[in-house]
Amino acid sequence: MDEVTVVVAHSERATLRVGDVFLKVDADQARLDVEVEAMSLAPVPTPEVLWRKPPVLAVAALPGTTLGRLGGPSTGSSAAWAAAGAAIRKLHDAPLPPRPGRAGRSIVALAAELDDECELLVTNGLLPADLVTHNRQVAEAALRPWTPAFTHGDLQIAHVFLDGDEVTGIIDWSEAGQGDALYDLATFTLGHEEHLDDVVAGYGTDIDLDLDVIHAWWSLRSLLAVRWLIEHGFDPFAPGCEVDVLRSRM
């Protein structure tokens, strides 16, 4: 009999693996709606939806392995990272989905959220004031007008599977929608700056890719994540994770 493995679990949602099936449990029906819709529209490989009975979505496991995870060693050749970049570009060039995603929050709302979060990080003693202040300044470059693209919204390297140098699928689409393409590229390379050039090579240099904005998203995303991660049982202070990303910007 196949064992049940907890892939990730916190108060908002949980993902379990039973053999070759992933069971995603989410009390927010809208997130599951977004996920199923995005997978049906995305022009890149996605998991097969096996069945759905709210609050559970069952999808098939993907072949291959990921390029690693945040805080862990990066794996894969330069060609593999470039192949991931090419897949991301294919997604960004696709017709827009019907609604904004996580990467599509308004500049005004995002700036307000960031300022509130920075204040809480300092007043609660979670991070030194100079570290927060400097990264808030770096993050400012991300708060600019952008052209909407079809974005994944949570494109961690653990969500992209490859077999050799071929992308076999991308998982976890609950944050997908219209958004800033550079947010996806920054999320994918967060904590693995050494592979940014490979990803950009695959993505293509025929468009204006502002690397300062990608760096800004690294700071912004990390600042917004630290407190949430602590409150949900994760460790952003682990080597190579969000706090180290913030320190690397100093």
UniProtKB/TrEMBL annotation:
Domain Aminoglycoside phosphotransferase: 42-204
A molecular-function term among this protein's GO annotations: transferase activity
Keywords (A to Z) from UniProt: Transferase
Protein name per its UniProtKB record: Aminoglycoside phosphotransferase
